[in-house]
């Protein structure tokens, strides 16, 4: 019986010591950044991706939070291109450009693929304010940062 009490005491002690370590690991996760690779110009999918990056990551303290618009995604930030208003956006009547602008205003980074922009015939002047034209060092710095998680949408 004494041996059982000793094992029980050791187990409780280990659990008590593990709890603060688990909490410290949770804190580390909250400090990690997010890099969203967004390749579509479908506004429903894009709104979900941008909202996730903005509301779930950026507003919960993750940093940096960046959205890389590439392939057809480059059209999302074109200030002259109207966007269809889907689902949750309908209540506030926000366009995709409005949602991107709010993300940027709160500290998010929107990076355009330079090659995709050129292929689409778009330049920095075509994009909403605050967009960064991507270069390999900018993308590489986020993509391969061990403290940034990548999510493809």
3D structure, described in words:
The chain is built from six helices and five strands, in the order H-E-H-E-H-H-E-H-E-H-E. With 153 residues, it is of the alpha/beta class. It folds into two domains: 1-31; 32-152, Hypothetical Protein Ychn, Chain: A (3-Layer(aba) Sandwich). A five-stranded parallel β-sheet has the order 4-3-2-1-5, with helices on both faces. Helix 2 runs parallel beside helix 4. The longest helix is centred in the N-terminal third of the chain and has 30 residues, at 2-31. Residues 6-24 have low confidence and may be disordered.
Helices, strands, pairings?
Elements: H1 2-31, E1 33-38, H2 43-57, E2 65-69, H3 87-92, H4 96-105, E3 109-112, H5 114-120, E4 132-133, H6 136-143, E5 148-152
Parallel strand pairs: 1-2, 1-5, 2-3, 3-4
Helix pairs in contact: 2-4
CATH C-level label of the largest domain: Alpha Beta
Number of helices: 6
- Gyration radius, rounded: 21 Å
The strands making up the biggest β-sheet line up spatially as 4-3-2-1-5
- Multimeric state of these chains? single chain
Q: What would the average pLDDT be, to the nearest integer?
A: 85
Strand runs, count: 5
Please identify, by name, the CATH architecture of the largest domain: 3-Layer(aba) Sandwich
Category from helices, strands and their pairing: alpha/beta
Q: In total, how many domains does the architecture comprise?
A: 2
CATH superfamily of the largest domain: DsrEFH-like
At the fold tier of CATH, the topology name of the largest domain is Hypothetical Protein Ychn, Chain: A
Gross morphology is globular
Amount of helix: 40-55%
Distance between the termini: 57 Å
Q: What proportion of the residues form beta strands (DSSP E)?
A: 5-15%
Residue windows where pLDDT falls under 50 for at least 5 positions? 6-24
Largest sheet: 5 strands, parallel
String of helices and strands: HEHEHHEHEHE
């Amino acid at each position: 019986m004494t041996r059982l009490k000793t094992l029980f005491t050791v187990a409780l002690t280990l659990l008590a010591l593990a709890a603060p370590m688990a909490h410290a690991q949770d804190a580390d996760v909250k400090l990690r950044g997010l890099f969203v690779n967004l390749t579509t110009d479908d506004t429903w999918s894009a709104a979900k991706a941008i909202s996730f990056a903005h509301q779930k990551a950026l507003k919960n303290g993750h940093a940096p939070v960046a959205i890389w618009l590439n392939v057809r995604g480059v059209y999302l930030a074109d200030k002259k291109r109207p966007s269809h208003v889907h689902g949750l956006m309908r209540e506030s009547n926000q366009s995709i450009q409005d949602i991107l602008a709010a993300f940027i205003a709160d500290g998010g980074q929107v990076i355009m693929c330079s090659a995709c922009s050129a292929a689409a015939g778009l330049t920095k002047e075509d994009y909403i304010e605050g967009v960064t034209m991507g270069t390999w060092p900018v993308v590489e710095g986020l993509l391969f940062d061990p403290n940034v998680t990548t999510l493809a949408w």
